[in-house]
Amino acid sequence: MNLLGVNSGFVVADIGAGSGYYTVRLARRVGPSGHVYAEDIVPDYLARLARRVASEGLEGSITIVRGEPHDPRLPAASVDLALLVHMYHEVAQPYGLLWNLRPALRPGGRVAVIDARKVTAQHGTPPDLLRCELAAVGYRQTAFYDLQEDTYLAVFVPPSPPNSLISPSAIKPCLPSRS
């Protein structure tokens, strides 16, 4: 969170929130003037997360969002940072997700991905594949950090101006394919 400058007042989307490990920490970090959208596509995860949010008294700080594999279904211009932690390799439709994520980002908004340096079949994303997939939709990498144990943090900004987003028909899939 320090590397990303997450602080009071930020609005963060925890994409693939799962059990809410990062959601809860983000809510405490952004404080009452910030907000967290906890997005996932698995109803059971979201139900458990809703119970956790209630038990920790964070209902006003966190909004639970049921996304779709190709669309996080976040409100337009609502997010300063979209955070995808150890889940990008699970995304079945990366180009659709990234394309549909763009409208949710506020001016200056960023996408941050934390993942392992492994092939997708081994629950990781090779950094070159990540860069290629985001670039295919028009995102530009602005930072890259090596973290512990073959893990990295990559930060991207969307195309600017917003209407310069590549059309879905123009997206060229990256090789090697996800497997």
The CATH C-level class name: Alpha Beta
Oligomer: single chain
Proper CATH architecture: 3-Layer(aba) Sandwich
Cα distance spanning the termini: 30 Å
Describe this structure in words.
With 179 residues, the protein is of the alpha/beta class. The chain has one domain: Rossmann fold (3-Layer(aba) Sandwich). It has helices spanning 21-30, 43-55, 94-101, 127-136, and strands spanning 11-15, 35-40, 62-66, 79-85, 105-116, 140-146, 151-157. The chain has a 7-stranded mixed sheet, sandwiched between helices. It is globular. The chain starts with 10 loop residues before the first strand and ends in a 22-residue tail after the last strand. The mean pLDDT is 93.
What is this entry, summarized?
The protein has a single domain (11-170), classed as Rossmann fold (3-Layer(aba) Sandwich), CATH 3.40.50. It has four helices and seven strands. The chain has helices at residues 21-30, 43-55, 94-101, 127-136; strands at residues 11-15, 35-40, 62-66, 79-85, 105-116, 140-146, 151-157.
